From TrEMBL:
InterPro entries, sorted: Acyl_CoA_acyltransferase, FemAB-like
Source organism: Streptomyces desertarenae
One Pfam family here: FemAB_like
Lineage: Bacteria, Bacillati, Actinomycetota, Actinomycetes, Kitasatosporales
Protein name in the entry: GNAT family N-acetyltransferase
Tree of life domain: Bacteria
A molecular-function term among this protein's GO annotations: acyltransferase activity
Keywords noted in UniProt: Acyltransferase, Transferase
Keyword Transferase among UniProt keywords: yes
SUPFAM superfamilies in UniProt: Acyl-CoA N-acyltransferases (Nat)
Enzyme class per UniProt: transferase
Enzyme Commission number(s) of this protein: 2.3.1.-
Length: 366
């Protein structure tokens, strides 16, 4: 597949999100693309610690397709944005095609794939090219070609779209024609919020689950736990960062609170009222939080964390209250149709009403 330069303008490239045609770039983003909007790119750029590049094609002077990239080395701390780690994790989880693809590398995945240009955004879930109705397959291929050229210039070993959703068949076809291959890298979960709120949500669950949800909420009320939505202005972000680090360490990810704090501050400053927290307090102390982003009418459960000493002592179901029960109530009241929960813990998310789609790690070795 080739493209004719007579049919589209040249690929534009900048290395700072501040230099993007921001309004036009954001106009290409769907409600499910918050992590490809310019304000999230600002957050990533200021906290990722790696070179970024932003590419787009135009027609009649207006962007029609856009691609965010990051240059990842084997030393970056955000391991779920590294193709070698994603492949190993996918193989260990038994995801379709992962073990065979990993074996086909013929050696150590880090040696074979790193450094890498991570394309489609440096985030976990729904990495893609933004494109509008006027974009052609040639626009998509032009951007992929430009990303590959940048990777070669940087001496990268691969280009990777780490989490391409199964519904993005158009981009998958373009990548497949260029020799990209890979495997399932996860399942992305979301929840459709019933218009009649929590009652409708509860009615959608199996009878046994409805009984357990009612019991969980009753225990929280009896314990006097206060759960509410709060602005990030004046929020105790150091406490949030410490609780998130606790959660990540629980799941075997080495992480410090001072690694989370800069991003939390960036989110507060860049998103304004479109970022807020759902917070659980007991005795005035924050025992758990969920960071929620708002984009295109949808909500995103972005980060969370818990006081696990408190959890062990009380056994209270803070996670479900914060990120499901209270959040569904508030989302329905605000007219929000969808809450996005991202990758991981699919069985748990399904048990609380989520559905999921496959995500694919598609790689080109250079």
């Amino acid at each position: 597949m080739g493209f004719s330069p007579l049919r589209l303008d040249r690929v534009h490239t900048v290395e700072r999100a501040a230099d993007l045609p921001r309004r036009e770039w954001d106009a290409l983003a769907r409600p499910s693309d918050v992590f490809l909007t310019t304000r999230w790119l600002d957050v990533v750029e200021n906290t990722a610690g790696v070179p970024m590049a932003y590419l787009w094609t135009e027609r009649d002077g207006v962007p029609v397709a856009a691609l965010a990239t990051a240059s990842a080395t084997a030393s970056v701390p955000w391991t779920l944005g590294r193709p070698d780690v994603v492949l190993r994790n996918s193989a260990e989880a038994g995801l379709p095609g992962a073990a065979g693809f990993l074996a086909g590398l013929g050696g150590d995945a880090t040696t074979a794939l790193m450094p890498s240009v991570v394309a489609g955004g440096r985030h976990v879930g729904n990495t893609r090219i933004l494109y509008g109705a006027r974009a052609t397959d040639e626009d998509l291929e032009a951007l992929v070609t430009a990303a590959e050229a940048r990777a070669r210039d940087l001496g990268a070993a691969s280009v990777a779209f780490l989490y391409l959703d199964e519904t993005d068949r158009r981009l998958a076809a373009v990548l497949g024609a260029r020799g990209y291959a890979g495997c399932v890298s996860g399942r992305h979960s979301s929840l459709s919020v019933p218009a009649d709120g929590f009652d409708g949500y509860l009615a959608s669950l199996p009878r046994k689950r409805r009984v357990s949800v009612a019991a969980e909420r009753r225990r929280l009320r009896e314990a006097g736990v206060d759960v509410r939505l709060e602005s990030l202005d004046g929020a105790d972000l150091p406490r949030f960062a410490a609780l998130e680090a606790e959660l990540l360490r629980k799941y075997g990810i080495e992480w410090r609170a001072d690694q989370s704090l800069p991003q939390l501050r960036q989110v507060r400053d860049r998103f304004g009222d479109d970022a807020f927290a759902v917070v659980a307090r007991d005795g005035g102390e924050i025992r758990g939080f969920g960071l929620i982003l708002r984009h295109g009418g949808h909500w995103y459960a972005r980060q969370t964390g818990y006081d696990y000493a408190y959890q062990r002592r009380t056994g209270l179901p803070l996670y479900f209250e914060l990120l499901y029960y209270r959040l569904v109530e508030e989302a329905a009241a605000a007219g929000v149709p969808v809450i996005h929960y991202g990758l991981g813990s699919e069985d748990t998310k399904r048990s609380r009403g989520c559905t999921a789609t496959d995500q694919y790690c598609l790689l080109l070795r250079l």
